Structures are given as structure tokens and as C-alpha cells.
Amino acid sequence: MNLANTGIAFITCLLLGAGIGLLLGNLEAGGAIGLGAGLIFVAVFRKK
């Protein structure tokens, strides 16, 4: 996976987490979960 696709996937994870947090009434927690998921995603796909 190249760097552009990895960046798009990171932003997607961040926005999905924020959207789920917004639906549940806690935007900050959802954004933090999305950020964590995005960082893990980037770390896994940078190793390959």
C-alpha cells in the first residue's frame, strides 16, 4: 500500500470514529478511538 492510500485510510478511520462518537453523543471519545484505529492501521501497513 503506498503512502497516499495509507493517508486516505487514516483519515477515513478518523472520520468514522468521529461520526460514531457523534451518533453516541461523545465526539471526543469517538475521535480518539478513530485516531487510535488509524494509527494502528498505518503501523500495520507500513511494515509490509
Helix content: over 70%
Instruction: Give the percentage of residues in beta strands.
Output: under 5%
What's the Cα radius of gyration? 11 Å
Write down how many β-strands occur, each being a DSSP E stretch of 2 or more residues.
0
What does this structure look like?
There is one protein chain. It is built from 2 helices and no strands. By secondary structure, it is an all-alpha fold. Helix 1 (3-24) packs antiparallel against helix 2. It starts with a helix and ends with a helix. The mean pLDDT is 90.
Summarize the structure.
The protein has 48 residues and is mainly alpha-helical. It is built from two helices and no strands. The longest helix has 22 residues.
Walk me through the topology.
Elements: H1 3-24, H2 27-47
Helix pairs in contact: 1-2
